[in-house]
UniProtKB/TrEMBL annotation:
It comes from the Bacteria. This is Uncharacterized protein. It comes from Skermanella aerolata.
Amino acid sequence: MRNHNSSDDFLFHEGAWFATSSEWRKKLLQEIEKIDGNELLNSSTSDLATYYATKFSLSVPVLYADDITVNQKEVQIDVSNDKGRYFSHNSGPYYIAGTCIEVEVPFSGDAISFKIQPTTQNYNNPRASIGDSTLHFSISGVNLTSEYVKSGIEKKIASINEHLQWLERDAKDYNKGLINVATQAIEQRKQKLLKDQNLVAGLGFKMKARSSSSETYSAPKVRRTIKTEIPKPVGSRQPFKPEPTLLTADYEHILSVLENMVRVMEQSPGAFQKIDEESLRTHFLVQLNGHFMGDATGETFNFEGKTDISIKVDGKNIFIGECKFWTGEKGYLETIDQVLSYLSWRDTKAAILVFNRNKDFSGVVEKIFEFTKKHTRFKNLIKQYSETSCSYLFAHKDDSNREVVITVQAYNVSERVGPRLRTTD
């Protein structure tokens, strides 16, 4: 019996992993550099970063050995080099009838993976032909047995899987880092574009091609200064109109002020036992205005409703805070809808303070995490500050390229605390 493999290509042979992955990163950055400037500024950074990270990631294939199919055919096999047979010297090839078992192995993932050399190698590369979603190889010989063929198939699959495992280790860190590579490239280019707009504005001359562009600016001065297959997200190519933005450092300071006020409530429940809703908001506003100059107000009307705490710029909310008692999924998701409806600037920020009177506070916190991700405008988790506080990214209700950061802070309060906040129902 003689086994003859077909002339399939060597797998995991053509491109070294480091050179290949470096070239992919380079192409990712080049594509970001080619995006129209106004389109980039009008597009969501997180959506674009996710798109490019997905586009340039590597999905290492998974073989489905349970779904292998085989086909048998008769072939002519050269046995002139068979040591068990005698042939005169240089008598040339000698063919006899044999059998070829053609094997087809389905897989999912990127077919290009089979051409890449992992950083770990054993210099015994398996051979096969690569299709879009199937690998093909054959086992040929004279007097083949089912046991022999089955063993040959299993050894081939084991060898391919071993190389795929090595490649998976290489791809894991590469894929994980792509979102940061794309995000940094997008943000750096956005900053340069905005800097260039400011440069032109500072010249004092009209710019012919961008006469409708506005100078980028920050929110007004405050005591603690507030500054300003996934389809490809497509932003407008209309001239970008800069808007005020709340810097992350200022946003986090606001969150800390709110949190510290709630801690006072938790530690001194008697002092707040008979306080009404309006007076409670006033306590938050007094604390905020001790840090920020002026613009925080209560019950400020805006678009579809009114909010507990807000900071306004040019008559529009740049920050809002909502205080709600926990009543369940429906009310919580409606609160998120309410917050999204109040915000109109690009990249604005908000906070939802959830007060719990139930005994199972841990269960409520778990439900908050679960229900947040179920919201139709939810994009991703930005940061987890603690077990009871997380920041999330949402798309604006009218434009997915406009994004809202909402931090949800949960607090456990006893019935003795007493203030009658608006509930989420």
